[in-house]
Amino acid sequence: MTLSRRTPGAHWHPRLVDFATDTEAHQRLLTALRCHLRNEQRAAGHAVDIVTISRTVLAALALRVDLPERAWVDTTILKLRENLELLLREDLGGHGSTPCARALREDAGRLLDLCSPSAPPLPPLHAYELMRALADTTRSFAALYQLRQSAREHDQ
After folding, report:
1. pLDDT tens for residues 92-102?
2. Contact indicator for 84, 137 with CB cutoff of 8 Å
3. 14 phi and psi, to 5 degrees?
4. How far is residue 124's CA from residue 139's CA, in Å, rounded to a whole number?
5. I need a labelling partner for 30 at 20 to 30 A (CA). Which of 22, 38, 40, 62 fits?
């Protein structure tokens, strides 16, 4: 028995995770995560979970000294995209027909186009800024949704 074999794992060579270096593997991982999130939403009946949306938005908008890891940014963009699409499908009642709400809806459409799977890959800083813009827009739609829900509860 050699000295390196006495310590478990001493003969193993450290290796980077595949999706950290391989963009195709990274895209496959994001596609699988997207499918998983869609399946969860279908199982939940497309219910809007304000707590989950708020946690995702707060994590995306937290101030940082340096850029977070690209994989985290991409995953957060995916979560924010799904949440924003879910909020856009909701009926916002009178709150959705104001000029500000229409402008917000147009901004959301532009942001969703930028982070669509068919969009070209973005540099890290642009992806980070896109994540923050998505989080800000999602927060605004969540506030409109909460206003609509409180108006519905008040009417009942």
Report:
1. 655 556 788 88
2. yes
3. -65, 140
4. 23
5. 62
Strands (E) across the chain are located at none
Separation between Cα atoms, residue 73 and residue 59, nearest integer Å: 10
Radius of gyration, CA atoms only, the chain: 20
Closest by Cα among 83, 87, 33 to 57:
83
**For the segment 27-78, what is each residue's pLDDT rounded down to a tens digit?**
787 778 777 776 666 555 557 788 899 999 999 999 989 999 999 999 999 9
* Predicted pLDDT at 113: 92
Give 93's DSSP letter.
G
Residues 6 or more apart whose CB falls under 8 angstroms from that of 114 comprise: 122, 130
Residue 112, Cβ density class (10 Å: 0-12 exposed, 13-18 middle, ≥19 buried): middle
Cα torsion through 59, 61, 66, 71, rounded to 10? 50
